[in-house]
Amino acid sequence: MALRHAVLAALLDGEFSGYELAKSFDIGVANFWHASPQQLYAELAKLEKDGLVEGRQVVQETRPNKRLFQVTDVGRAELEAFAAAASKPLVIRDDLLVKVQNADRIGIAAVIEQLEERASAAEAKIELLGRVLRKMRGDMDEEEYLLRGERIGGYLTGLRGIAFEQGHRDWCRRSAAILRERQKTRAER
Fold first, then answer.
1. Which of 67, 9, 15 is nearest to 33 (CA)?
2. How does the average pLDDT of the chain come out, rounded?
3. Contact, 175 vs 101, CB < 8 A?
4. If DSSP codes are grouped into helix, strand and coil, which group holds residue 95?
5. Which residues pair with residue 56 across a beta bridge?
6. Using CA atoms, how far apart are residues 176 and 97, in angstroms rounded to an integer?
């Protein structure tokens, strides 16, 4: 998936400025696709040049002017083609895994600390995504929302984000505990 598809998908919710798009990314899309605000602004310019989005200038009296973007029919067609194309299998690329793989040969204490930090970050993300999903559901319980909710895609990706973060948190905690125990055993020898 290219950043262009994530941006086009986010713009399906309406007309956004670059700033609003960045905030939207942080809350919803960031659970499966990260992009800095600078990357988003650059991508919006490319999408507009390619005719996939159109922008309009909004004059504001008390603030700087802003540009609002929305998906064009060509952009929707691009997303339709993207949705119909086969997805590539998921691969993991994570520098922490390189460190854990070599924990026996490098300083274990630093790796344990990083595992614990990642576990804490995953826990915070789980809580954030849980709040987002509760807000999406409103008064409905989850099963009712899954059957009758208006916008199910964002909810389903939120559930995937929670499952991913839970698995990551649990693996980090277990790995840190194992490395800590090995460190203790070695110190006793």
1. 9
2. 90
3. no
4. helix
5. 68
6. 12
| Tokens 């086969």 -> residue | 86
H helices present in the chain, as ranges: 3-11, 18-27, 37-49, 73-84, 95-101, 108-137, 142-148, 152-188
Strand partners, 58: 66
Structure tokens at 142: 């989850």
Looking at residue 180, what is its pLDDT? 94
Mean pLDDT of 109-117: 96
Looking up tokens 């504001």 gives 60
Tokens of 140: 């409905």
Question: Percentage of residues in the chain with pLDDT exceeding 70?
Answer: 96
Q: Chain-centre distance of CA 26, in angstroms?
A: 7
User: Per-residue confidence at 26, pLDDT binned at 50, 70, 90?
Assistant: low
